[in-house]
Amino acid sequence: MKNKLLMFGTVLALSVGSCTNNFEDVNTNETGFSNTQLEQDFNQVKAPIKAMERGMYVLVADDWVGDIQFNLNADIFSGYMSTPHNFEGNLNNSTYVLLDGWNYAEWDQKYNVEMVNAYKLQQLTKDKFPQFYAWSLILKVYAMHKTTDYYGPIVYSGFGNADGTTPYDSQKAVYDQFFKELTSAVDVLTAQAKVTPTFFPNAKDATDGTTGEGNIVKWIKFANSLRLRLAMRISNIDPVKARAEAEAAIKGYGVIVDNADNILYKAEHPVATYSGKDNWADINAGASLTSVMNGYNDPRRAAYFGKSSAGTYQGIRMGSLVDDNYRFAKADQFSIIGDVVRQNTIPWFCASEAHFLLAEAALKGWSVGGSAQSYYESGIATSFAQFGSGSPTAYTNDDVAVAANFSDPLNALNNIAGVNLVTVKWSEAASNELKLQKIITQKWIAIFPDGQEAWAETRRTGYPKLFLPTNNLSGGKIPAGTFVRRLNFASKQKTANPAGYAQGVSLLGGVDTGATRLWWDTGVNKF
C-alpha cells in the first residue's frame, strides 16, 4: 500500500498542472461514431453520465485512490472507522498529521472526472436536451458539495473558463450556485415528468448506474433531498436562506422519505475491499461508533460490523499508535466493516436522513409538515426497516442507555469513558440543544457508512460527541483538545495554480491547515 501511494504521488507530479488544462484531451470523441450517430440512442450523454456516476467513488480493480479519498480521511474523522495500519510510522491523518500524499485525492478525482464530464454534458445538452442537463446538474452538485466540505473555497463557477484561468469561489458563493442549480434542475424535470416518466424511451437505454435511475420523479426527489441537506448545512451561518431553501425542497414531489426511493449506486462498496485481514486490512470499525451503538445495544450493529473473536463489536480509536498486531497477528480482536458494504450497492441518499433533516428543521420552527419528535421517531423506524433490524419500539423508548466506555484489548492507553451521554427516547422537556444531540446522533448512526456526510455534520453541530484522537501529532497545527475541521488544499495547486491557490486561502479566511473552520462551521447551533 505504501509503495502504491508513493508511486501515485510520482505520477501525479508529472500529470496535468491545473484542474482544467486538459479539457480537449478529455473531451475528444474516441468512439469512432459521429455525433449524429451517437444521438440516435442518446449515447452522447450516456457515457459522461455513467462516468459521473462511477466517479463518485473510485470503482476500478485497483481502487486504492478511494482508500485515501474516503477511508483514511472523512471515514476516520467522522468516528465511523479507524485504521489498524501504521502508515508512515503512525504519522498520518489518523494522528492529525495531514499528509499531502492523501489530501489531494478528493480534489483530483472530482475535477478530473466529475467536473470535466459535467462540463462536457453542459456543452452537449444545455440547449438541446434540457432534461439531461438537469440530470448532470444534480450529479455535479452531489459530487462537489462533498469537495467544498473537505476544503472550503474551490474552483467552481470558473471551471472551463475560455482564458484558462481557474479562480476559486468562496464557499458561500459555491453554495449559492448549488441552490440555483438544484432549483433549475427540479423545475426542468418537473415539467419533463408531465410529458414522460423516464429519461430514456426504453428501460434498456439506462446507463446501469443508480437504482431506478431512469425515473425522473425519483431524481426530482433526490435533488430536493440534496437541497434540504445543504439548507441544513448553512442553517447556523444563514438561517433565513436555509429555512427558505428547506421549505421549498419539500414542495412539489418533495424529498426521499421512503426506502423504495433510496438512491443507491449499483456496485460493491470499496470499503468491502479495504476492511479485513483477508483483504487490504486498512480499515476497521471506529471506537466512537461502536461506543455509541454498543451502549444502545443497537441491533443495526449486525449489518454494520463483523464480531470480534470475543463475540463483541470492537472498534479502534482514532489516533491509536497501531502495529501489525492490530492489522494481522491479532486482527480478529477487532471488527471489520460488515454486510452494509457487501450488498453491491453504495448509498448516496437514503430516506432516514431526510426524516432526521426534517426533525431538525421542525426543531428550528420551520414549516415542514410535522413535529421534531414525529420525524425523529420515523427516522429511526425507517433506518431499522432499511437494515432489516426488526421493531424499533423498545429502542426508541429506551431512556436509560448511553454510549459505552471504550476498551482497547491491545493497549489500555487508548481506553476512554463514553462521551456521547444522551439517551434515545425523545423528551419534550429537554432543551433544544439536547434534542439536537439526539437527532444528530441517530442520523449519524443511520447514514453509515457515508463518512463524508457524517464528518460534515459532526463539524457543523458538534454531535454526536466523539473521542478525541489518542495521539495528536500535528505539532500544534491542530490544537490539542480539538478536532480536525478540514483538509489542506491539494498541494500541487500551490505551483500549478498559484494565483488561484492564494485566492482560495484568502477566501478561506484562515491559514491552510486542518484547524481552520469552514464558512458554515460556526461552532454555535441556532434554533
Key traits:
disordered N terminus; two-stranded antiparallel sheet; mainly alpha
Helical fraction equals 40-55%
Gap between N and C termini:
46 Å
Q: Which strand order do you get reading across the main beta sheet?
A: 1-3
Mean pLDDT: 91
What proportion of the residues form beta strands (DSSP E)? under 5%
Report the order of strands and helices: HHHHHEHHHHHHEHEHHHEHHHHHHH
| Low-pLDDT residue intervals, each spanning 5 or more residues | 1-34
What structural class results from the helix and strand content?
mainly alpha
Number of strands: 4
Please tell me about this protein's structure.
The protein is 46% helix and 2% strand. The termini are far apart. The chain has 22 helices and four strands. The radius of gyration is 22 Å and the shape is globular. The longest helix is centred in the middle third of the chain and has 23 residues. It is mostly helical and 527 residues long. The N terminus is likely disordered. The strands form two sheets. A two-stranded antiparallel sheet has the order 1-3. A two-stranded antiparallel ribbon has the order 2-4. Helix 5 runs parallel beside helix 20, helix 10 packs antiparallel against helix 11 and helix 16 runs antiparallel to helix 19.
